[in-house]
Amino acid sequence: MRGPIASGAILLAGMFIFLKFILPMVTAPLPASLIYLYLALTLSGIMIFGTMSASGLESLMGPIFRFLSGKGQSGVGQMARLAVLVLFPLLVGWQTYTRLAPSDLPPAENRTIHPAPPGEFVGLANPYQNNEANINMGKGLYAAYCSPCHGANYDGKGTAAPGFNPPPANFSDPGTIAQLQESYLFWRIKKGGVGLPVEGMPWKSAMPRWEEELSDEFIWKIIMGEYDGAHQSPRTWEEEE
Amino acid sequence: MLNRLKFLSTAIFVGMFGILGFTLVLASDPPPANDSGGSVSVRLYQVEGSLPADDPNSAQWASVPESEFKLAPQVHWKDRIQEVTVKSVKVKGLHDGQNLAILVEYEDPTDDPKDAAAVEFMVGDKKAHFAHGQPMLQVEGGPVNIWFWKKENGKALDMSAKGFKTLTTQEKQDVTATGAWEGGSWKVVFTRALKTEDEQDVQIEPGEWRSVAFAFWDGAVVDGLVKEKGSQKAVSSWWSIRAEPSADNSIFGWVIFGLLLAAGFEMVVVRKLRKGQSA
């Protein structure tokens, strides 16, 4: 017969395998702290469920009591008990050390990739007609000014890209310009990295403040060329409804 | 028979053992690498005795772990270039509690008088843009401190900047540097006191993080022109730097305290259980 302890252990192991190996096949890998939290919850669940009735309590806790007290044990049982009793203080000591030891990791920085634009840039419409001539002019300007970092293929893999942190945006990724309005791009190109609010960490961005070198007309046309080249469409208000 | 205390203490024991076991198995997430797979920080290891201050080739450097950062052409403002000679830099650091030494090592096929290297730091609490602390539109920025070495000068310049065309050589020079070229690569060691009296300087407090960036110029002369000069250079983004704090032995006291506490708790649990069973 399988006792509640074995069932509990199987459930915990199963939960661990699920969270650590199976779930990441469909989602991003879970951080260790989250797996840890779920396993602790599973363990508490097992303890609560196992101790709801007197007979359940006896079958869950009885073997643990007998194992820990060590009465009438010999051979493997005795060795296992000794191992547990030695391991526990060592785990506590190890945990104390890892918590107190100085970390080599710099403090985490959560940079907002697409912070809110200043009010004057919200909802601006591209004043230039979306036609082939304008798109081609935009692509030419993109090749000259933007492609060294953002890549000739609009994929963020320009020759200058590898040294930058944050890396240049990949426009072919559906998570970048496809999520944004043209007015947002106009702001980001015109004001550059230094125009970002604090949550965008402007001190790290290498994006030039292009208003110092390019006219508004050039910027709007670059935006057209960029969307066309990356095979994306700007987000519009209609789509959001 | 089960009594409540016996149950509670065992449950706590099992719970704690489980939690500690999980932690052991899960340990922690892998340290964050940067997006291009390089390092994210420089560690100035603490040494007893002297620093290899003026000697980039000192044997003392051999055992120091290195960080590596990729470099990009300076594209942020005009006179940008799109190709640079120096593609990445290896950085090592040491300190002795008073002074620090930072060694930068990078490939440059030729030894030229105009070859140059620089290390940049944010100064004070305000964030500074990595391009010479240029003004930001929505954030009040701070200044930067730049340590600049050029082969033909044979020494370091201790400089400050807060915005374009504000780069100035400080009145009080606190930095020394020595470079050595061999077999297609430069090794330059910068040295300074961890802390100075000059408020224009970065102050390195062991245990605290600072921001650091690097820049390199290939001074080779091609068709009568210097290949990289001024704003035409290889640059890094901001990364983190920290001087290792002195070993804190009180940690081991706490570890022993934890061990004893856990062992004592175990003894109580086992005694309770034994009493319960014989009763």
General description of the model:
The complex is a heterodimer of chains A (about 240) and B (about 280). Chain A is an all-alpha fold and about 240 residues long. Helix content of chain A is about 55%, strand content about 0%. Chain A folds into 2 domains: about 5-100, no CATH class; about 120-240, Orthogonal Bundle (Cytochrome Bc1 Complex, Chain D, domain 2). The two termini of chain A are about 60 Å apart. In chain B, the strands form 2 sheets. In chain B, strands 1, 2, 3, 4, 5, 6, 7, 8, 9, 10, 11, 12, 15 and 16 form a 14-stranded mixed sheet that branches. A two-stranded antiparallel sheet of chain B has the order 13-14. In chain B, α1 packs across α2. Chain B is elongated and about 95 Å long. The model of chain B has no long low-confidence stretch (mean pLDDT about 90). At the A-B interface, α2, α3 and α4 of A face α1, β3, β15, β16 and α2 of B.
Main attributes of the structure:
heterodimer, A: 241 residues, mainly alpha, Cytochrome Bc1 Complex, Chain D, domain 2, 2 domains, 8 helices, elongated, B: alpha+beta, Immunoglobulin-like, 14-stranded mixed sheet, 19% helix, 32% strand
